[in-house]
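Structure ticket #2291
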Amino acid sequence: MPAINRCQLISLGILYAVAGCQFLPESLQKNVQAIASHSQQTTPDQSCPTNPPLLEANQVKSISLSSTPVQESGQIRANQSLGYSFEAEANRQLFFNTQDNLCIWIYAPDNQIVTNTTLPKTGKYTMQISTPQGFTTFEIQLSLDAIAVEPPSSPPRQNYQFSWANFPQYSCGDSLPTDPNAFPVDFYPVFIPQSEANLAKAKSKLCQDSFNKTSKDTGELVIQVASFTTVEKAISFKNFITSEFPGARLGEKTTRN
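Resolution: structure written out below.
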């Protein structure tokens, strides 16, 4: 099956397995491999399920799309799904951009799988996202082609900025809410590779309460340097410390009741 440029949905079946596409000049764009569910060309550890995992209604987020890309992020396992619903007019084109290994299904307002780059009907669409294996933290950008009158754009995302001038701190992450009604609350941990040198460096230069722990998503020994109540803030912090701590990553979220 040929590789597809331009980060578009394509008319090659019901299942899109996506890895690493960016809004770059066409000559620099990475290819998107689009794989129909019946394809035998994928390796076992890269293939998406023939039947998508169950998508619970409480795992679907409503978003507004326009020609300006909207960025979303989350965490999923191979047997789980997240969804994004959006309104679109017939004959609009849907674009998406991700650098992560994802399985993606697009459902039309009549719950039929979309098999064409052009959205066929006016109404509410749902994008279902899963991962072919294991656990992953993902980021994805979504947009529609431009029209004369655009639908309302989604609220601007919080831009988290960190500066080394503000470190070290005793504790770098978010605190538990003081309002009992705020529970349950999710926390997204930030890990760095475990070593005595990294732990000493993290305590002296970054977060003094850094500690060793076993990652529940991989079972490996890691150093937790912080934990945040939004995945966006956790990703921003991970990106901030990567220059000093190569291999920094997000761990699986934990929920405090």
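Closing remark: The longest strand covers residues 135-144.
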